[in-house]
Amino acid sequence: MPLKNYGVLKGKAIDSREGMGASPHFQILIVDDDLRHRIAINVKSKVEPSELLYYVDENFDHPMVTELEPLPPGFHELPSEPGGMALDYIRWNCFDITLAKPLPHDIPGPDNDLNELIHKYVARAIAMENSAVYAFGEKWGPETKRDKYFGFKPGNGIHDIHANQGNSDAWKGDDGVYQDGGLIIHLPDEARWVAIFLAFQSQCFHTDDATGHRIPEACDGSTPPAPPVDEPTETRDKDVRIIAALINPEGHDYGIESVTLLNTTPDSLDLDGWAIVDKNKKRAYLSGSIGAGETLRITLSGKDAQLSNKGGIITLLDRKGLKVDGVSYAKKEASKSGWTMVF
């Protein structure tokens, strides 16, 4: 079953421990206005390949940060659904999943393993008085005993700070959409947010919208049967890119907002059954085709997918419902009316 007590924990980082032993976790001690909490972050997988995939965005400018900043310190339970703050790597367009790379947790030398990478940013948060750490995952506690790493009582904290869907069979029961873990750090003195996203190499980023289970044809290296000669060849991720959008037209937005696509392939592509999806999972279905190397500007009717001026996401799905591309934009980027935003 999906995670219990999923949410986000906000607090001030005051100490940390590198992950060691058979099941290493990087540990962070944070405080809110009343309690201490421990964040336990996996830095090694129990199954081969053991190196976790990671992606760090040192200037995370995503619409979710405008909702995170005013949160009071402490744990906040989040419903696992679109439109809120619940984290979902692929549905929230948090980062380009093709850029996630494996990294060992502990190897000789400075600044070259996952422990040291996480420590680099946590240490800045500890040193900065007004910083805040936001940990997405599953809460545990309060316990009757002291915390085994930092000694506070009652022990409590948050774990599963990694992707929580698309699991292999052994952990399939933990799958769910809009329940991914992650670490986001606000460094106000540097006017930036840092996001750290982690996943096991045994997981898959393409998952079913209802269950969070992996989609076999997108994850397991299986090759779909060749299509009949009168059917188009299936696309791969990034074959069609979202390159621009008119998010805030002059005057009213209804029926004027638009999204511009670029076909990077040498072939014309049939877009029948494809869809543009907004942050609330509303879909605008496409028709027609896009020529080889050509762009196509799609005007949204306003009856389905809409582009929020308060920040949002735009996702392109193929006819199988698989993500082809996705972008996000913040409120400040959508503030200039009449301008087309380039991604």
Please trace the helix and strand order, writing H or E for each element: EEEEHEEHEEEEHEEEEEEEEEE
Biggest sheet details = 5 strands, mixed, barrel
Shape: globular
> What is the count of distinct domains?
2
In total, how many beta strands? 20
The total of helices stands at 3
Which spans have pLDDT < 50 for at least 5 consecutive residues?
Answer: 222-233
Structural classification: mainly beta
Rounded to the nearest angstrom, the radius of gyration is: 21 Å
Strand order of the largest sheet: 1-2-3-8-7
Q: On the 0-100 scale, what is the average pLDDT?
A: 93
Helicity level, as a percent range?
under 10%
Proportion of strand residues: 25-35%
Give the distance, in angstroms, between the N- and C-terminal Cα atoms. Answer: 37 Å
Provide a descriptive summary of the structure in words.
The protein is mainly β and 343 residues long. The protein folds into 2 domains: 6-219, no CATH class; 240-342, Sandwich (Immunoglobulin-like), CATH 2.60.40. The chain has 3 helices and 20 strands. It has helices at residues 65-68, 114-127, 216-219, and strands spanning 6-17, 25-31, 36-42, 52-57, 74-77, 101-103, 132-140, 157-159, 182-187, 192-199, 240-246, 258-263, 269-270, 275-277, 283-285, 289-290, 295-299, 311-317, 323-330, 341-342. A 5-stranded mixed β-barrel has the order 1-2-3-8-7. The longest helix is centred in the middle third of the chain and has 14 residues, at 114-127. It is globular, with a radius of gyration of 21 Å. The two termini are 37 Å apart.
